[in-house]
Amino acid sequence: MKSVKQILTKFNPVSDKYVSREFQSYGIHLAEELDDYKHRSLYIKLAKTTHRSILERALSFCIDSNARNKGALFMWKLKEIKKVVDTSK
């Protein structure tokens, strides 16, 4: 994980229109890892509103799989993890 200082030193306001905060950088990272750049705004929103440990668990599950559509698998696993977390409260 990168610190905010590292992100802001590499930030170019002309070419990096989407990345000015850490959660935006993480959302773009999710989109690239899942090969689903089309839905990058969804991943940015998830990075902003969802706890990072939940996202990391779902991402590690998807990266280890051989699924064709890793974005859909990520969303399914995210739903399953949230369901387990909500029932444990």
Please give a structural write-up.
- With 89 residues, the chain is an all-alpha fold.
- The protein has one domain.
- It is 67% helix and 0% strand.
- It has helices at 4-10, 22-33, 40-49, 52-63, 70-88.
- α4 crosses α5 (70-88).
- The longest helix has 19 residues, at 70-88.
- The protein is globular.
Short description:
This protein has helices at 4-10, 22-33, 40-49, 52-63, 70-88. The model has no long low-confidence stretch (mean pLDDT 87).
List keywords for this structure.
89 residues, mainly alpha, 5 helices
- End-to-end distance, in Å? 28 Å
What structural class is derived from the secondary structure elements?
mainly alpha
Give me the count of strands.
0
The parts where pLDDT drops under 50 for at least 5 residues are none
Domain count: the total is 1
Q: Which value, in Å, is the CA radius of gyration?
A: 14 Å
Q: Can you give the helix content as a percent range?
A: 55-70%
Q: What is the makeup of the main sheet? A: none
Strand content range: under 5%
